[in-house]
Design brief:
Elements (H helix, E strand, L loop, with lengths): L16 H15 L5 H7 L5 H26 L5 H15 L6 H12 L4 H6 L5 H16 L2 H6 L7 H15 L9 H24 L3 H29 L15
Helix pairs in contact: 1-11, 3-4, 3-5, 3-7, 3-11, 4-5, 5-10, 7-11, 9-10
Catalytic activity: 6-(2-amino-2-carboxyethyl)-7,8-dioxo-1,2,3,4,7,8-hexahydroquinoline-2,4-dicarboxylate + 3 O2 = pyrroloquinoline quinone + 2 H2O2 + 2 H2O + H(+)
EC number: 1.3.3.11
Keywords: Oxidoreductase, PQQ biosynthesis
Length: 253
């Protein structure tokens, strides 16, 4: 039975809030993408510049999708206070006023790696699996009940540790990386805990039944799968060497 089926939990009593939160956190311990071999290679200095470029180029697709999924989420929300809280996520990525936002900081990273902004933002060189994965995430947030859509953001609970590891590992191991290109991750050290604290509190309060709680846990698994699938695709293309037709080829851009 898939992660979002509720029939088997129809008559089960709800978990306590403590047990529910523990079940959410256990997903990260089991399957967050800090355990993926490509991630370990990236942070351990085992990739060449072309492979790091490929990672940054493909990850842009995910960064670009985040404010779109948040805008789609907000379009469904009638609770004004929830919209007021959620809208800052769009500002965090797209920017507001003179603040360029996370996407701009990501483009500073790809600039520093020697990639053309036009090429990055076109997404033409991104792997097919990357594009399928990120659009599946957007569709999930569009289609699932609001509390489950909120739960899918909770990989942010596990993000600060990976950001700290990424900053230290990449600065130590790559001479083509400096502080300026790590600005995205440094900002997320403060943003991710704020966002995850709110989202966790929201689902603890609004997932009333055991079926809803289990669907929320399934949503976190799904989001981990989205992140894992992107690294699978990168490993297949740029470590194994099976680059799909039309995808970025190191040395050509």
């Amino acid at each position: 039975m898939n992660d979002f089926s509720t029939a088997e939990w129809h008559d089960a009593p709800p978990l306590s809030k403590e047990a529910f939160e523990a079940a959410i956190r256990a997903v990260g311990e089991e399957r967050y993408h800090d355990k993926h071999p490509f991630h370990k290679m990236l942070h351990g200095g085992k990739l060449n510049k072309g492979q790091v470029q490929a990672w940054a180029l493909n990850r842009y697709c995910y960064q670009e999708a985040v404010p779109r999924k948040d805008a789609a989420f907000m379009s469904r929300v009638h609770d004004r206070e929830l919209r007021r809280e959620w809208i800052h996520r769009i500002h965090d990525h797209d920017g507001l006023g003179e603040e360029g936002g996370g996407i701009e900081r990501w483009l500073v990273l790809t600039d520093g790696l020697g990639l053309s902004r036009d090429y990055v933002t076109s997404r033409k060189g991104a792997l097919p699996a990357t594009k399928f994965a990120v659009e599946a995430y957007v569709r999930f947030v569009v289609e699932q009940p609001l509390v489950i859509a909120v739960a899918s953001s909770l990989t942010e609970l596990f993000a600060p540790a990976i950001h700290r590891e990424r900053i230290a590992g990449m600065l130590e191991n790559y001479d083509f990386v400096d502080d300026s290109v790590m600005a995205y991750f440094k900002r997320r050290l403060a943003q991710a805990p704020r966002d995850s604290d709110f989202a966790l509190s929201y689902i603890l309060q609004h997932a009333y039944t055991r079926a809803e709680q289990e669907a929320c846990v399934g949503a976190v698994r799904f989001k981990c799968d989205v992140l894992w699938a992107q690294l699978d695709a990168l490993h297949q293309a740029y470590v194994t060497g099976l680059i799909p037709p039309g995808a970025f080829t190191p040395g050509e851009k």
